[in-house]
Amino acid sequence: MSLAGVRPRERASRSERMAEMVRELGETGRLRVGELARRFGVSEATLRRDLTALEEQRLLTRTHGGALAQGAAAELPVRYREGRSRDAKRAIARQAVRGLPAGPHVIALTGGTTTGELAKELPDRADLTVVTNALNTAMEIVLRPRVKLVVVGGVSRPRSYELVGPWAEQVLASINIGTAFLGVDGIDAAGGITTHDENEARTNRAMLGRAQRVVVIADGSKLGRRTLARIGDVTEVDELITDSSADAGSVAAIRAAGVRVTVVEVSTPDTRRSLVD
User: Pick from 189, 218, 223, 221: which is nearest to 204 by CA?
Assistant: First the structure.
């Protein structure tokens, strides 16, 4: 949703407002404080504080009366993505949990907002082991004492809350994983599964390589999209779970590559069904 669709009476939260500004900046390359204040129904002083905070995170460059895009600001930090497509992500997460086998099982979760929703939906099972390199997911799972939690080491990425690098890869190399749930920034039949950061891609690749079953969970905006760092080929994915906003052509191409695709219909938060091919 662009800023043009935000009315003052909706009064978005600060994180939602800042997320909308970064997305709009990516589309237009420029933001103007006066226009933002009118659209969001907040003061210009409030908008200037928002822009200053985003500049400190190197997501934009402040100018007199507004801001300009920074070339490297392609990846929106997790905290600004959590509210986007939330109903779809919850539906995808619930569908993923329904596919877990009975009995002892080891699952792995990468970072990302959809995998974060999956962590919230996981049952409190004593026979379940969760391996993750995502700090926010670990904080969710550690509150469930019946579930065994394994957190891989590594160097933290503030934008994704993930631990990445050789230490993480070394730990993953010693673990056997039943099902790996991957959150991605893009999945495309020809371009494969991708993310913004090359170190994150290497760590996710190490997780994928240790799994008997690989499931990509991604809302419709990720289909047909290619980002910088390639995690692997789409043929290495056993199943993709997405929602009905996904481009039909992209879904068909991924199915044609031999991937099982589950499309979750999201009409309202309480009305969902899934179509499996």
Answer: 218
Q: Which residue has the tokens 């979760």?
A: 109
pLDDT of 137 strictly over 50: yes
pTM score above 0.85: no
Pairing of strands 229-232, 239-243: unpaired
Tell me the C-alpha distance between 42 and 54, whole Å.
Answer: 17
For the ranges 55-64, 204-213, 254-263, which has the lowest average pLDDT? 55-64
Answer with the residue of higher pLDDT: 141 or 29.
141
The whole-angstrom separation of Cα 166 and Cα 71 is 28
Q: Which two tokens stand for residue 42?
A: 């907040």
Q: Give the span between the Cα atoms of 13 and 247, in whole angstroms.
A: 29
Phi first, then psi: give them for residue 220, nearest 5 degrees: -60, -25
Token readout for 201 is 């891609």
Give the amino acid at 105.
H
pLDDT at 270: 42
Residue 97 is given by DSSP the state H
C-alpha distances in Å from residue 101, one per residue of 85, 122, 178, 179: 27, 12, 10, 10
Complete edge-to-edge strand list for the sheet that includes strand 271-276: 148-151, 128-132, 105-109, 177-182, 211-217, 239-243, 260-268, 271-276
